[in-house]
Amino acid sequence: xxxxxxxxxxxxxxxxxxxxxxxxxxxxxxxxxxxxxxxxxxxxxxxxxxxxxxxxxxxxxxxxxxxxxxxxxxxxxxxxxxxxxxxxxxxxxxxxxxxxxxxxxxxxxxxxxxxxxxxxxxxxxxxxxxxxxxxxxxxxxxxxxxxxxxxxxxxxxxxxxxxxxxxxxxxxxxxxxxxxxxxxxxxxxxxxxxxxxxxxxxxx
Amino acid sequence: xxxxxxxxxxxxxxxxxxxxxxxxxxxxxxxxxxxxxxxxxxxxxxxxxxxxxxxxxxxxxxxxxxxxxxxxxxxxxxxxxxxxxxxxxxxxxxxxxxxxxxxxxxxxxxxxxxxxxxxxxxxxxxxxxxxxxxxxxxxxxxxxxxxxxxxxxxxxxxxxxxxxxxxxxxxxxxxxxxxxxxxxxxxxxxxxxxxxxxxxxxxxxxxxxxxxxxxxxxxxx
Amino acid sequence: xxxxxxxxxxxxxxxxxxxxxxxxxxxxxxxxxxxxxxxxxxxxxxxxxxxxxxxxxxxxxxxxxxxxxxxxxxxxxxxxxxxxxxxxxxxxxxxxxxxxxxxxxxxxxxxxxxxxxxxxxxxxxxxxxxxxxxxxxxxxxxxxxxxxxxxxxxxxxxxxxxxxxxxxxxxxxxxxxxxxxxxxxxxxxxxxxxxxxxxxxxxxxxxxxxxxxxxxxxxxxxxxxxxxxxxxxxxxxxxxxxxxxxxxxxxxxxxxxxxxxxxxxxxxxxxxxxxxxxxxxxxxxxxxxxxxxxxxxxxxxxxxxxxxxxxxxxxxxxxxxxxxxxxxxxxxxxxxxxxxxx
Lengths: 204, 221, 342
Prior knowledge:
The structure holds three protein chains of three kinds. By secondary structure, chain A is of the alpha+beta class.
């Protein structure tokens, strides 16, 4: 009977602790898993801030310099500036690879997220080093709206650098050929007996 | 006589050519100077400690980068498109290459980790754009005003049923500039907050729940 | 005499290259100080062994530890003195635009004047930083251009490229412009600086651009190292480097030493400050054979043969070492006067 009472008491206590937010609170300080990296506090360096449709929208990315094949996080936060409350509809994210020519393939989404502790969390994985753009749609009943943000993964090479490199290579090649031709021509000139040439020396 | 005549003719042609070139160079460089310095609205940004007010700062600063070299925490960066794009900012008119701090990336430690008489960046500045500031609590409180920390109550854990307090512990003037209220809610005192941004750097929330608002925004100092 | 003058040219080139290397090492030293201050230097030296950033840190660490106070004895072992190396790391800032070493501050007069005019206030620190450059310029004239300016070094390279082009039988043009351009530019620039209250000449002034771009490039190399990449990247530079590239291309194809001869506002300012320099190149007329080698050699397109150097000579000595007859030498005017009397 005594054990039954003790069990009931501890169950109730556990229930209270689980239900109350304050019970969770002390896990935040000093527990590294709340940070993204062991080298806590590691802040993301990728930040976007946009003001549209009466909302202040922020997106942070971690890691700040994402690598292909690595799971990354994009957190979207939209604050209604009129009411000071976070946007609480559904948010859809689509990520496309930005190709210089042709269509832009979708590599993530469309993924719909519900609000979670005032923000919307997405975890895309990028397939290769390239430029991407992120389309975020805020689904509001009257009128949904979309914002587009650029994103760079790894160190994408610009098509211009290839073109410039090509032009540079051709120029260097032409220069070398020309140098070779001129040198050959001069050698031929030297081979001709030199006695006919006038002396350039002048008496001092 | 003919020799001099020829010479003047040559001089006139040379002069006209030169004058045209000079005019083009003067026009080109003034246009380029205006353009290179940045275009558009002057953006509110966080300047290193001891900075003059924005307008006078932009006049005095010669964009040499000595403050950035001096910073022991490497938090001072040149304000260029390259450095500011990831923080959703852009240098405005005359702002390019001026020193700026992005606290989310690296915040000002007020030279806490090194032995020095002055805040090192203010000591390194060759123009007085950053006013020499002694590394003492009174001097810093008196002369440094980079911005003001603002808490977003929607995002902050401590305002939403979980106590955190990491920003309060990061504050160099803990208990004065940033006090822990009930459930370690961060309470900012504008009187003491110098806007160093260590709270923003420490915040574990993404996006950060505490931000340093540049001083120009709230029109103080 | 000949040999010594030749040595002077070697010394000048060594100084130019040394200034460039020093300028590039300043940001690396700054990062080194950052890692020392963050108690992270040993980890960086270990992790980045063999990479560019790691090698730079190792060289800096080795140098600073050898300097007095760089090491302390702890438990019978010599270890890095944190305060000692930090003192050295925090003793050197900036580059050719504005430089500080061991507390001695020097600024390009163009930058200092712009700051003063834009702010309409002479700050004490600006005045201090002007002393050394102004005194040197008063004595030697435009020596910044020939001994220190990294753009001068880069543009001396264009002379080499032009000679290669001539070898390839591609005649690079040599259009003459008006020398007064630089003074016009200086006047207009300073006037606009005063009116708009923003120092604008510094944005397009090559030593300042090289100062900033050099810092960006090296800091970017360390940022890359911190995110696991290695080497230098062109992404560290901003598009302002294109201004330098444009000047180089223009000088190679259109006009020899166009920037220094005709356009550079800083060179104009140094010329004006050094107008009464006592040390100048002088001609010994009796020895001159009028071969014009010195006229060809002069990078600034002046005429040493007629002893008409004007205010723009930067005392580089190229004419002196090109002279086969010992007809040119550095001289103080008094000495010249004495010689003439004899």
